[in-house]
Amino acid sequence: MQPTLSVQNLSIEYQARRGRVQAIRNVSFEVHRGEALALIGESGSGKTTLGLGIVQLLPSTAKITQGKALYRRDTLTLDALTLQGKALREFRWKECAMVFQSALNALNPVLRIADQFGDTAKAHGYLQGRALQERAEQLLRMVRLDPERVWKSFPHELSGGMRQRVLIALGLLLEPQLLILDEPTTALDILTQRNIMDVLKELRAKLDFALIFISHDLSLAAELADRVATVYAGKIVEIADVATTFQDPHHPYTIGLINAVPTLRGAKEDLTSIPGSPPDLIELPPGCKFHPRCPLADYRCREQEPELEPIKPGHAVACWQWRSARAAMEKFRS
Amino acid sequence: MANPIITLEHVTRTFRVKRETIKAVDDVSLDIHEGEIVCLVGESGCGKTTTGKMLAGVLPISAGKILYRGKDIARLSGRDHKQFRLGVQMIHQDPYASLNPAHTIAAIIAAPLQHHGLTRGEAQTQARVRELLALVDLTPPDDFLEKFPHQLSGGQRQRVSIARALTVNPSFIVADEAVSMVDVSIRISLLNTLTKLKTAMGLGVLFITHDLALAKYFAWEGRVGVMYLGRLVELAPARQLVEQPQHPYTQVLLSAIPEADPEITRHKRRIELRSMDVPSLLRLPTGCAFHPRCPQFLGATCERDVPELLAAHGARVACHLVSRQ
Q1: pLDDT in tens, B94-117
Q2: How far is A83 from chain B (nearest CA, A)?
Q3: Is residue A71 assigned to a domain?
Q4: 20 to 30 Å CA-CA from A327: which of A41, A181, B95, B294?
Q5: From the centroid of its chain, how far is CA B115?
Q6: Number of domains comprising chain A
Q7: Whole domain around residue A305: which residue ranges?
Q8: Cis peptide before B140 (omega within 30 of 0)
Q9: Which of chain A's residues have a Cβ under 8 Å away from the Cβ of B190?
Q10: How many CA atoms does the CB half-sphere of B166 hold within 13 Å?
């Protein structure tokens, strides 16, 4: 089966006063129908830029310097990065919807929820009137909202979790085949987060879209993803199915992240921080961008940047030391 | 155990909101000892930050009493008051907002030293600044002295905040979500620095967070308190709270938290709430405030009586069901 989205050699830069910010560097990945891909990484790793790039919503200081994002639906194939005008408007929302971080600000504060749905439908020449309301109510129920309570409300009358769910329902209005969620549960309380996660699971079971979600939260990836891509300094450094990512990671950064996050079950001794901090994307270090923080770095890591190479079917790693990384990291901890 | 550094006795704080009164913190009692870590966890609006602010003396209380080394902080004057204000220091959540962007790191740390006359002369001040930077693992200190906050990473800035709090030799630190804005990969090292300082200087710490796993890790030898709508509903040794939670709310929270292991998190037993709606502080439910959502709701008792925080199996729990057992 052809992937719904295949991103090929994508690079994105920002122009800043201090120089060029290399936010995304030569990134390639695929997402299939019905699949959920998590992009995990710390703040400033380029995850959000990647999402915004796919729907062409980057700020004017950003430039896509190379790459493609091929989107396929049935017999249709198009490069999302080259779309313009009407074709771009149709691609957005009808084919690919994005739910932004900070749901609290993403809805128009002076429109009732009904009008937010109405405006979207109108702009895209979708259902109107009664038919639209029925479709919207069905979606609102799918995200566990009471349509009667929500339909005539203004955004400020809803809680953060409710607004996030309205946005997800709104995103799905035009039946897109690709949904991008940026930090869908960040800044929400534990019980609200749980509710959003359950809603997303139910939606995936009912509707057959491809999902990309961006998060710094490893546990969200463990809960929702089929595959996980670890992003560091604008590059995917490891990609694997979710079980492999957590049980058999091979990149020292992925291993380090998993070891750095406290868990409810874990013992205190299990935790170690990654030394140093993420690199400045304007002045990237030579060689592997993780080498200044990596306990396993040797001369080659300092000089040559490793590319993402498959090590097993479905598992690719960008690390010169991947063969010995797990054992070596274990030794390094004790 | 020795006398507590901080004692909260039935502390309540109300706020006026559009002609109505809400209780942000309601009848909270708690002792914290020298060298002890207590974490307060709970969802937004549960009163954990308000509690921290009252304890640090930056927000007056509406009812009850807060004692610092046995003395009521509302009645302190002169030297005692100054001792309290110096003795209890806060570390704020946002290291991007809590440091003056126009001052160098050296100036930020030197200011309280000079203001309170803790060091004599420039040479002594500079030496103490270096010492403090080294203490919070900003080494070598000379690399940081002339830098401005914007030249440091979030983690490094938060270390500067810690160093600044330590300038006045406090005996107690209130840290409100002090690592939540710091990169995941370096949170643990920041907490380790705090733990090291706590042990070395015998500091008491109130650590406010919404992350239970983090609370368990940081308060490993200490205690964790869970707040719900202004009240402390469970207070227990950290590991016990996570491994054997007694209050239904604590149990629900723990069952809802996803874990960084796909096997465990996808097969975890979930406890469903009776209602997803969080009651407004303006219209708090009668009796136990958790009763409309409580999966173990008992009926009339829960609707009528506010449960007290009572000792139960090595912890303190405010629940009618637990107190019956």
Answers
A1: 888 999 999 999 999 999 999 999
A2: 35
A3: yes
A4: A41
A5: 27
A6: 2
A7: 235-333
A8: yes
A9: 273
A10: 24
